[in-house]
Amino acid sequence: MSLLRLPFAAGALLALCAGTEKFAPPAPAAPPVPPTTTASAPRPVLRFNAAGEFKIVQLTDSHLKFRKGKTGGAQTLAAHAKILDAEKPDLVVYTGDNVTNRPPQPAWDALLAVPSQRKIPFAVVLGNHDDEGGWSRAKIFEYTTDRSRFPWNLSERGPANIKGEGNFLLPVLPSKTAAGSAPTAGSTAGSTAAAGKPAALLYFLDSGAYGRTAAGKQQGYDSIAPEQIRWYQERSAAFTAGNAGKPLPALMFFHIPLQEYSLMVDTKNRRNFVPQRPVIGLRTEAECPGWLNTGMFAALYRAGDVFGVFCGHDHDNDYISVLEGIALAYGRFSGHAENVYNHIGSGARVIVL
Question: Is the pTM of this model over 0.85?
Fold first, then answer.
């Protein structure tokens, strides 16, 4: 599995890898549920290691489903376990279309048991299919963010006054050896007042499911809403102001790609004036972005903090390219072709800050 390092703004380094993993033999038919704990257990704090690195494994479009006489679900879990054991990440990020099982609870238990049993913190955003198995988006987050079930889940439902479930941010603190990084009492990973001053930020957004016109007619896939963009802008501006006017390096994760993904490769018909960008990785299907461009990319460009955006949704793409200093990347499909379409193999993206 090859590793690529690309220099970005603010002196940060982003290492990216989207590789394939051969599926291991099927896991037991009834995977154990995550260990339970009390709600008062300390919440994991994300922090750069002593070498100044922070590793994320992105798993996307697992479409976890258990079907009688089929092994795709068990093989998906076995592959996830193999990846996490090999990479030993500091954080696992699930970028949508995670579970399509009916009923959903056994699959969510099994999916999140993999990082939970290894005591690896994880974060979840939803895709357009996650709420089609019998649970609403609100029910999914109500269940999975219950820390008595999933103490290693750092996801948050987010503000009630903006669209979606799972709009939140996580600060990544400097290594313990860094000056001025001593923790303070009562700090948590999800709090903007977490121990010490953040060295980086991770934003998570709910990109929704299916778009609707003003008349209520379904129109393609959903888009990030203006109030979600404002929520990001307000927090970005606050962190920049608290950092002497210098934006903190940040990444962003959601499911449905932005329309700007297609700008980088849309050169055949010259529908735009964006020069062709080198695309690293596989692009074997056309992008399926949200139907309406609501200005998310423009907001990122103006804020100057997010230098990498990571999505899923299109199972046969795993590429990365850079547009105006912002890396736009897909994760590698992390499910099994028995449950949903895929022609490029299964694996994960590894991101190292």
Answer: yes
